Amino acid sequence: MKKNLVFYTYPSCTSCRRTKAWLKEHNITFEERHLFRETPNIEELLNLIKLTTEGIDEILATRSQSYRELNIDIESLRVTELLKLMTEEPRLLKRPILTDGEKLIVGFDKGNLKKLENKKLLFNNIG
User: Fold this and answer.
1) Structure confidence by residue, pLDDT tens digits, 58-112
2) Which candidate among 32, 36, 113, 127 keeps its CA 20 to 30 Å from the CA of 20?
C-alpha cells in the first residue's frame, strides 16, 4: 500500500521552498501542511520522534530565536512537557519535515530526497 508523504513547511523558509521545488521537479506527490497553521499534535510529534535516530534533538530547532528566547533548560523538561511546548510554539521545530510514516527527512537534504525518489520509482515499477 502506498504511503502518503507529509511535508511540514513554512512558505518563507528557504529550505522549505527548495525542498518543495525539488519534490515538484521530481514529480513526487505530497500532502503539504503549513507548520504554523497545521502544527503537528503531540501524537504526531511522538510518531516523528520514533522515526529519528537522535530523538527530539533531530527535530528541535535549538538555533532558532524562539528557542533562545525561552531561556529554559530543555534537559530539565519531561518529554511530555517538551512535546506540549513544541505544539504551542511550532517555531521550535526544524523545517521542513517530511515523512511517509516510515522514514523521516528534516531540512533540505538532497541525498535523502534522492533516496525518496528512488523509492518512488521502485514502487511505480512494481505496481
Assistant:
1) 999 988 888 889 888 888 999 999 999 999 999 999 999 999 999 999 999 999 9
2) 127
**Active site (annotated) includes residue 16:** no
10, 13, 18, 32: the active-site residue = 13
Domain edges within the chain: 6-126
The arrangement of secondary structure in 6-126, i.e. its CATH architecture, is: 3-Layer(aba) Sandwich (3.40)
DSSP 3-state of 123: helix
Burial of 62 (0-12, 13-18, 19+ CB in 10 A): exposed
Give me the residue label for grid cell 508523504: 5
What are the distances in angstroms from CA 32 to CA 49, 74, 77, 99, 121? Answer: 19, 29, 30, 11, 21
